[in-house]
Amino acid sequence: MSPSRTVLAAALTGVLGTAALTALAPSSGSAAAAADPVLVGAGDISNSGSGDTATAALLDNIAGTVFTTGDNVYDSGTTSEFNTYYNPTWGRHKARTRPSPGNHDYNTAGATGYYGYFGSAAGDPSKGYYSYDIGTNWHVVALNSNCGSISGGCAAGGAQEKWLRADLAANPKPCTVAYWHHPRWTSGANHAPSTEVGPLVQALYDYNADLIITGHNHQYERFAPMNPSGTADSARGIREIVAGMGGASHYSFGTIQPNSQARNSDTYGVLKLTLHPSGYDWQFVPQAGKTYADSGTAACH
User: Fold this and answer.
1) pLDDT tens profile 270-286
2) Which residue has the higher pLDDT, 23 or 152?
3) Taking 60 as the threshold, does the pLDDT of residue 56 lie above it?
4) Is the pLDDT of residue 19 over 80?
5) What is the pLDDT of residue 17?
6) Contact criterion met (CB below 8 Å) for 278 and 298
7) What's the confidence (pLDDT) of residue 125?
8) β partners of residue 138
9) Where are the domains of the chain?
10) Cβ distance 86 to 72 under 8 Å?
11) 2 has a pLDDT exceeding 90
12) Nearest 5°: CA angle at 135, between 132 and 140?
């Protein structure tokens, strides 16, 4: 503190008292700034095992909005399964959860167990896709990759793809993340990459989206930013992270796909995204007792 500020502080202390002076003092930038918002979650979550218990415990200590990338409960997406498996674990965070549906959720006709459990947070039951904003700079899109279960599916010119383009066109936010169940790119041995969701990826790319989160294969995999054809694109490419490590039994990897940068198939966990005004941090948070880690930082386009 400069001499003049010292004199002023002493004078104010005498008049106002120490507590009042402390209240007037400028706070540090880190204390004054509001914390950047957090988006955290995974897919392929709840069954009769213990994986979802481990990942729900992680959520207990991470504030923010919870996302799911489908297959919220196994095996058939019934109301009973949601109440028996999901509700005691991830259900603790239902009030802050914005889900997306998977194919197991649709094993019950119309995914009525899923829509009944999550209610309005899951969007229109005839569509299953919606969007919302987080903080001042981030737009979030939850899509429905169960293409055969909704009108228009995922096709170019279909209802969902047209809605997505209109939603992105009306979005003034500089950063965009989207999530759904079936991965456009994956090295998983159990499920191949989905070409059906290609039109959705193309729309996101056309509007400079930054990040896609998926599930379906029960593992973690991070790709380099790519264009819709799967070619590395550091300028406008979208990064995909497969976050299917929410609790269901692990799947193995098969042929490793181009631009796959990080992989794990033996650790349950959640993906934590810290959403900065012009970029994001990603972090794989492992279950207690495990050490696998993956983290990094990227700028928005």
Assistant:
1) 999 999 999 999 999 99
2) 152
3) yes
4) no
5) 41
6) no
7) 98
8) 134, 175
9) 1-33, 36-299
10) yes
11) no
12) 30
> Of residues 4 and 137, which shows the higher confidence score?
137
Cα separation of 248 and 49, whole Å?
A: 7
- Burial readout 124-156 (b: 16 or more C-beta within 10 A, e: otherwise): ebebbbbbeebbebbbbbbbbbbbebbeebbee
- Residues 168-200 have pLDDT tens digits of 999 999 999 999 999 999 999 999 999 999 999
Q: What does the block give as tokens for 56?
A: 């729900």
pLDDT at 34: 67
How would CATH label the architecture of 36-299? Answer: 4-Layer Sandwich (3.60)
Query: How many C-beta neighbours within 10 Å does residue 187 have?
Result: 21
Question: Cβ distance 278 to 174 under 8 Å?
Answer: yes
Rounded distance, CA 144 to CA 147, Å?
A: 7
For 130-147, write each residue's pLDDT tens digit: 999 999 999 999 999 999
Q: Are 87 and 57 in contact (CB under 8 A)?
A: no
pLDDT value of residue 23: 36
Q: Which residues lie closer than 8 Å to 179 by C-beta, 6 or more apart? A: 67, 69, 100, 140, 141, 142, 143, 212, 213, 214
